[in-house]
Each structure stands twice: as structure tokens, then as C-alpha cells.
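thread: overnight batch results

M.L. [08:02]
morning all. the overnight job finished for the chain we discussed friday. pasting input first so we're all looking at the same thing
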Amino acid sequence: MPLTPIAVRYKDRSAVLLQRRKLKMARSAHAYVRGSTVKFYEWLESSMGRSVPHGPAIWICGDCHVSNLGPISNTKGEIEIQIRDLDQTVIGNPAHDLIRLGLSLATAARGSDLPGVTTARMLEQMMQGYIASLMHDKRQQQLPKDIHLVMEDAQRRKWKHLARERIEDTRPTIPLGKKFWALSRREAREIATLFNGEPARKLITAVRSRDDGAAVEVVDAAYWMKGCSSLGQLRYAVLAGIGPSKDESFCLIDIKEAAAAAAPRYPDQIMPRDNARRIVEGALHLSPHLGERMLAARLMDRSVIVREMFPQDLKIEIDRLERGEAMLVARFLGQVVGRAHTRQLKRDACRAWRADLERTHSKSLDAPSWLWSCVVDLVTTHEAAYLEHCRRYAMEEIG
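M.L. [08:03]
and the structure it wrote out:
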């Protein structure tokens, strides 16, 4: 008989997490893109990888799909749409971020029943937004409706919204059940030790509204079944109290295992060997709002990232797109990725990379021919792999 979520024991986690990951990836073709980063690079290498240009050596996201972009707040409360997940970040080829984002937009278009010509126009708009950033065009594009709504939501959110969404209540406890599981004695002990340290305390008290010298104490903690591609790795939620007991406030901390990146790196570039330090370094270059809030640490003999969950941090979810909105969204997201890349490049390097991209435009498409070829090939491969994944998952369920 399958284990109920609240009954999951430490030794049984892996099997339950694997089953959950298969289910999440079977929900839609767009969800399958999010959970198949390793396969993405395998497909890319075996298909059109050789035709992809070698862009400048910069930090790239490595997993640049739509849901990995969204509003992020810095410690001062300023909100900007940046890349929000840097697990795969490496010093590599910026073209890989463009292909990954293009594939994500193409699957979103297919999920919205938009015609193929609209997908082609979306890639054009994505590239126009990206190239505008390389040209240091600082003109503010009008936010697409879907992006405007998520930004409005981010700007009005407070701690109570995050608490009710993540831990179901504003009371200082993490409810065990479907998402949160009990810790082992060793996990509880190591988490307490981590938060007794000065680096974790400084990370939490760096927020503008908090006293730099305030004490930080673990109030509650649990294993967190969260995400898709990260399922099966260490993931914890920690509820921390800040300040004296008579005036105590709370924050929710995410501890996530830092695994090796699947994204290919440029071999002659030097990066931190520790995966958590690699992720923090990449975040500081690509998404400063997020990078300044991250700490590389060790837990359970593994490399982990520690960061506070801010109420304003949201993901961009695209369920249904209309044709006009799809164009605006694609252009805007291209600009977001372009800004992340451009802030690492000098003007001469920007001009050279822009020239490379514009030189490969086809006569019938205002986007690089290699980008269109890669996305078309990957969509085909992805659809077949997604259907096969669903078949296998269904057979396991029947069995």
C-alpha cells in the first residue's frame, strides 16, 4: 500500500519523491520542459548543437525557461523581474539560454493552441527584445498584461500572504503533511547548528527593516517536497524567529541542495568547484536581487544554498496565451535575459555578440536560423519524449 504523505519516513523519501516527480512532469508538455534540463542538453548535443554559435564567455542561467523568470525583491524591498533559479548556472554560451527560453515559449504556444506562425513570430520578438538589451536600449517596454498582473501581486504581498501560501497559517509552525515531512534527528541537529552560525544570522538580518544585531533562532523546520527537477535532493523549510521574544518576527528560509550543473561550461573558464558557491557567484552576475540574499553552506555532508523566501518573489506562469499577448511576453522575457547577459559585457563585446546574432538571421525569419532550427528539432524530440514519459507513468500506475 502506498505511503500517505504524512507517514513518509526518512528512508522512504526517495521512492515517494521519484513518483511525485514523474507525476508533475506528466501533467503537461510545458511542465515536462521544466523537469527535463539534463535531457534538454542531451537532445541539443545530438541534434543541432554543432550549428549553435559560440557566444562570449559569461555566466548563463543554464535552465532559462519561462517559470524561472519572475519578480524578485532585494534586501531593500526593490522589485525587478530577473532570473529566479540559478541551479544550472555556469560560465558558458549565452546562446543556450536563448534556445532554452525559445523552447519554453514554443511549448507554451502549443499549449495555448496558437498556430505555428505565431511561434515563429514569438521567437522573432524574443530576439528583438534580447538584442535591444545588447544595444543598451533603456526605454521601458510596456508590461504585457500577464507580467503586469504578477508585478502588481508582488508589490502588494506581505509576510501573511507568504505564510498562508507556504505554511498554511501565520502561526509559528510548519504543518506536517503533503508538502512538509518530519526531520530525522541528524537533520534537525545540523539545521540548528547552521543557524547558530554568524553567516546565517547576517544573511537574515541584512534585510533593511531588521536590526543588524538581532538574534536568530530556529522555531520549526521540516523536509520540503518542492519543485520538479530538484525532487530527490535535499530541500528544507526553516521557520526562523528574529529579535527578542517580546517583539519577535518570523521569516521562512529555503535550504536547497546544490547539485552539479547539466549545462555545458566553457572548458577554459574558472568557476568555484563547490556547487553552492558556483550558484551564488552566478546569481550575483545574473540576478543581483537574488544573489545578495543567498548563502553557500554545508549540510548533511552536502553543498546547499540558503536563502530567505520573500513574499514578493513570484514565478511567471503562462497557462493560456492570446496571439498579441504572446508577442509582448516573448519580447519582454527576451529583454530580461538580455539584461542579465549584458550587465556582464563591455560595449565592444555587446556589439560583437549582437553582430553574430544578426548575421545569422534568415531571409524569411527575423531571428537566427540556428535558433529556429534548434527549437523546431527540440519541440519534436520533446513531444515524443513527453508522450513516452506519460505512457510509462500510466503503465506504472496500472501495474
